[in-house]
């Protein structure tokens, strides 16, 4: 098993590789759209415009949108004194310049997530089910896990992945519709053009799948590092291991969880039936393996 420092270094490299792969997909889709419309630059400019619009939306209101979709409400100190005091203490230990905003989700599911583009402006949300079914050490460990995501800027990366995956999906849809509406217009195509059209069609179909697999692979790997960092932050690996055991034993879907943002949670909030290659499409690594690694620390 890799050391925590090796995992952290590997994750940084994977972050650059992931973003690069997304931009390659976006560039290829833009070029294919440009080919269909007879202008390479048209496709690239269209891709840039869609990226710019989505980027502005996500960076300006993405975190609030996620909290809104989750039906998260601000936690009041008079109602949740231990929760707020614990986050304040962990913020000092983690060296944060400011304390993350704390939210509560009225839901029986046991879960939590962090969001935000930078530690100075971040948010943590926990379900009432988690607060009611865990002891104080376990709650602290879960909060430490979410703060580790913030400190490692995982929340920022995952929001960018959601942004880029969404753009890939939009461009793929545009490309497929372009093939549909231009299918019968120009029948005098040479073999090279036919091959390019065929490759473009395959790309339009498979690009969203590739984008999803890339995003989920990044999410799974970063959970291990957040677990390790959380164990160090709260100085209690067993507390997080036991918290994950409680989640595994009593877990249920979070009512308002969105599959697009499921990777932000400490454990998949939208459980699905087992399917072929389920590990490839999982937002999180096997919870049993996470518990095993924590027990070995």
**What's the helix-strand series?**
HHEHEEEHHHHHH
The secondary structure category is alpha+beta
Average pLDDT confidence is 81
Total E-strand runs: 4
Helix fraction bin: 55-70%
The percentage of residues in β strands lies in 5-15%
Largest sheet data: 4 strands, mixed
Gyration radius over CA: 21 Å
Distance between the termini: 11 Å
- Structural domains: how many: 1
**Strand neighbour order, sheet with most strands:** 1-2-4-3
Poorly predicted ranges: 273-278
Q: Tally the helices: what do you get?
A: 9
Overall geometry: elongated
Description:
The structure is a single chain. The protein is α+β, with helices and mostly antiparallel strands. It has 9 helices and 4 strands. The protein has one domain. 66% of the residues lie in helices and 7% in strands. It has a 4-stranded mixed sheet with strand order 1-2-4-3, sandwiched between helices. The chain starts with a helix and ends with a helix. About 2% of the residues have low confidence.
